[in-house]
Amino acid sequence: MIPAPYLLYLGHSTDFAGIKTSRGLAAFRPDDCVGEFRHDDCPLTLGLPRLTIAEGAARGARTLVLGIANSGGTLGSDLVEDAAAALEAGMNVAAGLHQRLRDVPRLAELAKAKGLQLFDVRDAPANMVVGNGNPRAGHRLLTVGTDCSVGKMYTTLALTEGLRARGIVADFRATGQTGILIAGSGVPIDAVVADFISGGIEMITPARSDDGWDLIEGQGSLFHPSFAGVSTGLLHGAQPEAIVMCHDPLREHMRGIPGRKLPGLKECLDANLQVARLTSPNVRAVGICLNTSQMDPAEARDLCARTADELGLPTTDPIAFGTDAILDELLCTAPSARSTTASR
């Protein structure tokens, strides 16, 4: 386990989506976060106290979490400098980037000299297996998306909490660095060798007979040229009984690919169901989740209602409006209802 409490790193970030790991920890593990560290040119905030490295250490932070994502997942010189400062101040350092902290000689040597630890969250387990697609017992839901960073993790966590509130056993299964930091376990599926992606998901969602649910955090999108392979492996390994589609209605183009439009919701939903049927022939869609965090609440409610009418599926922003309508559909407590949480 990565020692808490944490000082959350924003650095020089200017992209709101790029600080999703720090945002996720601030939202779902607030009691473990003492503050945020950002440079003067960073206009973003998590609403936490802004602290220097030294102030963070003085307030008891045990780990600096480099909770940002950049293209290629690299450790630039600024990140290395700030990580080194944290080690000098007596903090461990954690990161979910593709480039490993331990592979930077300066950081590895400094951590050893100080008796501190470097946590590379994107390390895949050593005992990975190839998926087989054989039917297995249990209830599983997978979140999918029209693009990267559209709210799949937030939706999965919200659905997990919603099921638990109804007295139903439910487990969040993390597949990305942010989710793993929140949950304390999981498989960083985009760092897994391609042959083992579906097997990695089978491994963290084994057969279960307690009538509980595994809620699996989705990654990427079938329509994103860079990451569709990961999304496909997730669909096959999850063998989901149900899927929930996530979408950012204000997204102008695929993340990182200006000029490439996002797919339509129905087009994306149909494609995900088709791919999922390879290992889960009876999979069904149970809802749409929209990330309306940057929208006027009234406009967001109206969009949820219109989307529900167009697609015949419960539609909500899981953070702003809750997940009850989708959970009703999932559990078939109101099978004939095609309502939207936002319209209630």
UniProtKB/TrEMBL annotation:
D-glutamate N-acetyltransferase-like C-terminal domain boundaries = 131-327
Checking InterPro entries in the record gives: DgcN-like (IPR011669), DgcN-like_C (IPR035086), DgcN-like_N (IPR035402), P-loop_NTPase (IPR027417)
Q: Which residues form a coiled coil?
A: none
What SUPFAM superfamilies does this protein map onto?
P-loop containing nucleoside triphosphate hydrolases
Provide the D-glutamate N-acetyltransferase-like N-terminal domain boundaries: 46-123
Q: Which Pfam families match?
A: DUF1611, DUF1611_N
Entries under Gene3D superfamilies matching the protein: NAD(P)-binding Rossmann-like Domain, P-loop containing nucleotide triphosphate hydrolases
Which NCBIfam families does the record associate with it? DgcN
Q: What is this protein called?
A: N-acetyltransferase DgcN
Encoding gene (name): dgcN
